Amino acid sequence: MTTNVDFGELQYGWELAYQHQDTEQPLWQEAAIPVIDDAIELLRSAGARSVVDLGCGDGRNLAALVAAGFSCMGVDIAPTGLAHARTTAQPAFLLRADATDIGLIDNSVDAVTCFDVFGQIQDPSSLVREARRILRPGGTLVVNAFTPEDGTYGEGEEIAPHTFAYKDTLFRYYDEDSVRELFSEWEITSLYRRSWDDPPHGDFRPYPHRHDNWIVLATPR
Ligand SMILES: C[S@@+](CC[C@H](N)C(=O)[O-])C[C@H]1O[C@@H](n2cnc3c(N)ncnc32)[C@H](O)[C@@H]1O
Asked: Does the Cβ of 120 fall within 6 Å of ligand 1?
């Protein structure tokens, strides 16, 4: 195991991945993440109207949330990803910001979603803290996080336990205890596992692979 990798640099791997994608094709896939229907139902039953999607990328999940009738904002650190989202996720607001320091005022949104991002930022506990800050009391957070049984586990260079640098990006995998620890100041209203097959992602991961996820629904205490 080596530790000489710059975590900060790894965030910018995403921007390069978006810059090198085929402009006709979204980097991930056109379809939203398979758990989006669950998320929409949960957000509706929680009475959410405004949703901020953290790490929205090129906007596939944001587009589904817009289509479901939520008032949406997408936040991402990668400007080229956001430029694609401008066409895919109209009329969502788009904000270029670090998801750990968003600049929205406290208690201002009903719900936060965060898909396929959670294990890919340097300090996930800061993201969780920031989500808590912007959520109104009783608001809802929906995230997924890869488990150690995910099909991509072990790819790239292991830089910390359950943490890999893969093509200049960071991948971290969570066991149940580490998920619960991250949300120790939240009420976890639902925590379950779900797997799905993903198609190739351009040059980034050019082969089909299976993801195994924790799905977390939580409310600030
Ligand atoms: C695997 S992609 C997922 C994109 C999108 N959520 C989806 O499911 O299609 C991860 C995204 O997280 C973004 N990201 C990584 N670190 C970030 C940070 N600190 N703040 C905001 N976005 C970040 C990347 O730019 C990238 O768009």
From this structure: yes
DSSP state for residue 142 in the 8-state scheme: E
Quick check: CB of 88 below 6 Å from ligand 1?
Answer: no
Ligand 1 probe mutation, 61, 72, 77, most atoms within 8 A of CB: 77
Render pLDDT for 168-184 as a digit per residue (tens, 0 to 9). Answer: 889 999 999 999 999 99
CATH class of 7-22+34-202+216-220: alpha beta
Domain boundaries, the chain: 7-22+34-202+216-220
Q: Would you say 140 and 219 are in contact if contact means Cβ atoms under 8 Å apart? A: yes
Distance 204 CA to ligand 1 centre (A): 14
Q: How far is the CA of 217 from the centre of ligand 1 (A)?
A: 19
Q: Which pLDDT belongs to residue 67?
A: 97
Residue 94 has what pLDDT? Answer: 97
The Cα 12–Cα 57 span in angstroms is 12
**Distance in Å, CA 30 to ligand 1 centroid:** 16
Q: How far is the CA of 128 from the centre of ligand 1 (A)?
A: 14
Q: Scan for tokens 């920031």, then name that residue.
A: 130
Q: What is the DSSP letter of 101?
A: B
**Residue 3, Cβ density class (10 Å: 0-12 exposed, 13-18 middle, ≥19 buried):** exposed
- Going by pLDDT thresholds of 50, 70 and 90, the confidence category of residue 201 is confident
Does the beta carbon of 115 lie inside 6 Å of ligand 1?
yes
User: Which H or E run includes 125?
Assistant: helix 124-134
